[in-house]
Automatic annotation (TrEMBL), chains A, B:
The keyword Oxidoreductase applies. It comes from the Bacteria. It comes from Flavobacterium cupriresistens. This is Aldehyde dehydrogenase (NADP(+)). Keywords: Oxidoreductase. Gene3D superfamilies: Aldehyde Dehydrogenase, Chain A, domain 1, Aldehyde Dehydrogenase, Chain A, domain 2. The keyword Membrane does not apply. It holds the Pfam family Aldedh. InterPro entries: Ald_DH/histidinol_DH, Ald_DH_C, Ald_DH_N, Aldehyde_DH_dom, Aldehyde_DH_Superfamily, ALDH_KGSADH. Residues 17-459 form the Aldehyde dehydrogenase domain.
Length: 528, 528
């Protein structure tokens, strides 16, 4: 079923000579499929097709786009077991994760379809005319959100389904009315091709314009660079490292016409463990965190990589419990041998820093490419002195910082880079006393969690997956949940426009029955 | 009343040695006041104070912030006539414009106060917990908008009131909960100081934290550069030229932590004149456009600088009518002698291009610094060949492009840079036939106008003042209207947070009675 080719719109093409393969980390061997990188001409063709598709795709109704997204979900499910097998062979993830993540991808597509069917997401805002206003008449003004244009999506390594070919970025961009060109992630190109085939089938079945979706293969940075610099591309979605994301942001900012890049990048997701909570529940929290740190071999953006607490008997107990729990968990296979090597290197680097000691590490034998979960420890004083200790190690790793007191704890939080999440583990009674900690944390994060773990990112309207730089490149948007659509749209105002030529969303009698703000009041009613 | 000093929070300081003066273009002389530029230490102090103020200002309730904004409006009005005299002496604008623009500034401040008092603008979104959901429980998630941090506002030359010290950028940033540091525009520093004094008085009367507002004077680019590069600054608002705005965007993008810049820059605001409309109403439209082109000496971002039409008898008639109307209007004083010189230079440059001829120009004598309104003409073919013809000339100027046919007209629209506005002058009947023109225009603009003029930017929720680059640096936001607040905020999610520690906007019983999205339904009801 794998052709090894690029989807330029619905056409499978492989005019190039450069090829790449993927890797099976479980078997520690190269996969058999050979993928051909997109040529300059193929890249050009995909972008031109996307731009051409935009002129008709942006006019599709919400219902038409919803049918398209639901059809994508259906076609992905129709790929059945074969897709799951492909996913496992290119990620090292177990079957259960494959099924779970497919469910998440399908759920995301359908949640955007629900949003489109309901229709109010366009934020229609109407101020009707007041012809006799003094000193000047008030004109009729009506505003709604419209799509930006062709969007480039960079697949992520750690979510071959939910944040790649038909993942959240693609689903939200297609929902907004923007055509999408995916740069397939080099670790799971076969999985990407299969998912792309489902999108193409869905586009054909629902009569979407040719070029509404393309899927390109590229080995080095050339493909990504060409796409981000292309004048017809109007936005970029990325999930990955800080260096990769920043490079794209810089490229986009340097264009003659700068374009928005939403890059979801690094995060160590600080967790503050307050003393009362550890006193009452140290075993429970140690078990929860051992689980969260090792979930999916720690390869989550929201992995808790930094545990902060004030020194004392409670913390000592927690440390003992965490050690026991961590050492008991069976390590998992990482996404790639290079990831596993980077993980080991990252730990070694941290361990070599002044004042850092090892708290816990899985002690048994592990297979190649498996990540041995590790907890290190350092004093608050040393942590404050050494910025490198606050950088992410991607994998099942966390560093425990033993603070002198709460003043130092807050100092550390204030010095942290922007984060996706911040967690407080606390008894409800004691929380009032620690308001200063909460306010400090709130300033640095996109999501505040009370008595839980940061892993497990719910897909819903109230989710914020993003945060102050470098957690994401623009903290004003989210990468997860239906509000992710707002990254790819801009408002357009119509002044004194004839009613029958207005988009349905803005017409007087509100034919779509959406919630609109009319003269500063939210209403389903019509206007005139 | 003018001290010539900087407001570092509430303190008037002038520790520096460099001074600047402003210019009275009506009298063609330097104004008497001497203003001292802010020193490096004063800049540092203003930013540090703003950052300190942020910790308490962001906790202010909507009502408290509304009181502050209303107090600013009151204090500005309390400055009375003296402020209007100051404004006129530093802008060359007549008294009527001063009063009108003051009204706009006051109206903007009060409209944000109304928005804050109502409170729903924070887009509270709640998804309640489902503890027994399979395979995993759903956590309680609640999201709302929170302020970014200290914002730097660059005053504009052409709106000393409405887009400067207490203009739309300042009002929206203060409404969002962000402290503001204004870089006073060098053409009207005295006006800026007076308005700043009103803001400081209002802050003191309503118990706002010291440093919530500062007003700095700077001659060259040093002040602006220092502010945009400062690590504690979290966003920038700018109104001005493309080169100035782009320079700030580049600086902000190159920071270790890039920050959002909303720059409202250049626009020629294309106007498409369809033949039936010219046939029926050429005199009416010629008069309207002569008025719009010369309004405020053409010194508006939405000045119609590009008139597009297909050649023919109707266009010839319009040209004759426009010439008559343009030549009758008395020229007005421009903002500064340098502006007037740039205006003349701009016209001369355009006139020297191949195929360009003069249609109309005011023929009488004019005083120094007055702008002689001018209309040039060129064929569609030459216009397409010469990109420089599409660039803005700031002042009472427009270029009429005589297109061969509608195909060429659409080609021209597609080649245009992003624009604030696009206008169609048309009989309603003929509009259906010209859908392709509308769709082309829609792609290039932030606001589409039917049978009107682009000047006159209504301040309301449905206004979009912004547009594809370079009309603005980020087409996803507006600079005018209450939605301008969304430039300075980011969403923050709370997961499983104790109800009594949540912000009031997210608490179960909806104490503020704001519209919230609860489990995907808009409601005023509480939840649990």
């Amino acid at each position: 079923m794998i052709t090894g080719k690029n989807y330029i719109g619905s056409q499978l093409k492989a005019g190039g000579t450069k090829t790449v393969k993927t890797f099976n980390p479980q078997l520690n061997i190269e996969n058999p499929w050979v993928f051909t990188e997109a040529t300059t001409e193929e890249i050009e063709e995909a972008v031109a097709l996307a731009n051409q598709a935009f002129t008709s795709y942006k006019k599709c109704s919400g219902l038409e786009k919803a049918q398209f997204l639901n059809a994508i979900a259906d076609e992905i499910l129709a790929l059945g077991d074969e897709l799951l097998v492909q996913y496992c062979s290119e990620s090292g993830f177990p079957r259960g994760r494959a099924e779970g993540e497919r469910g998440r991808m399908i759920g995301q597509l359908r949640s955007f379809a629900v949003m489109l069917t309901e229709g109010s997401w366009v934020q229609a805002t109407i101020d009707t005319a007041i012809p006799d206003r003094q000193p000047a008449p008030k004109e009729d003004l009506r505003k709604m959100l419209v799509p930006l244009g062709p969007i480039v999506v960079f697949g992520s390594s750690n979510f071959p389904f939910a944040f790649s070919t038909a993942g959240g970025d693609t689903a939200s961009a297609l929902a907004s009315g923007c055509p999408v060109i995916v740069k397939s992630h080099s670790m799971h190109i076969g999985t990407g091709e299969m998912v792309a085939s489902a999108i193409i089938k869905a586009a054909q079945k629902t009569n979407m314009p040719e070029g509404v979706f393309s899927n390109l293969v590229g080995g080095g940075r050339t493909l990504g660079t060409s796409l981000v610099k292309h004048p017809l591309v109007k936005g970029v979605g990325f999930t990955g490292s800080i260096s990769g994301g920043r490079a794209l942001c810089d490229l986009a900012a340097q264009r003659p016409e700068p374009i928005p890049v939403f890059a979801e990048m690094g995060s160590v997701n600080p967790v503050v463990l307050l003393p009362e909570a550890l006193k009452v529940n140290s075993q429970k929290w140690a078990a929860a965190y051992a689980g969260s740190i090792t979930l999916g071999a720690g390869q989550f953006c929201t992995n808790p990589g930094l545990l902060l607490a004030v020194k004392g008997a409670e913390l000592n107990d927690f440390e003992t419990e965490l050690t026991t729990a961590i050492e008991k968990i069976e390590p998992l296979c990482m996404l790639h041998s290079t990831m596993q090597a980077d993980f080991e290197k990252g730990i070694a680097e941290k361990e070599s820093q002044k004042g850092v000691s090892k708290v816990a590490q899985f002690k048994g034998e592990v297979l190649p490419n498996y990540g041995r979960q590790t907890i290190l420890k350092v004093s608050g004083e040393e942590f404050l002195k050494n910025e490198s200790l606050s950088h992410e190690v991607f994998g099942p790793f966390s560093i425990l910082v033993e603070c002198e007191d709460e003043v130092q704890l807050i100092q550390i939080i204030n010095k942290l880079d922007g984060q996706l999440t911040g967690t407080i583990i606390s008894e409800e009674k004691e929380l009032q006393k620690h308001q200063a900690v909460i306010f400090a944390l709130q300033n640095r994060v996109g999501r505040l969690i009370f008595n839980g773990v940061p892993t497990g990112v719910e897909v819903c309207a109230s989710m914020l997956h993003g945060g102050p730089y470098p957690a994401s490149s623009d903290s004003r948007f989210t990468a997860v949940g239906t509000h992710a659509v707002y990254r790819w749209v801009r408002p357009l105002s119509y002044q004194n426009w004839p009613d029958d030529l207005l988009p349905a969303e803005l017409q007087n009698n509100n034919p779509l029955q959406i919630s609109r703000t009319v003269n500063n009041k939210l209403t389903l009613a019509g206007c005139d």
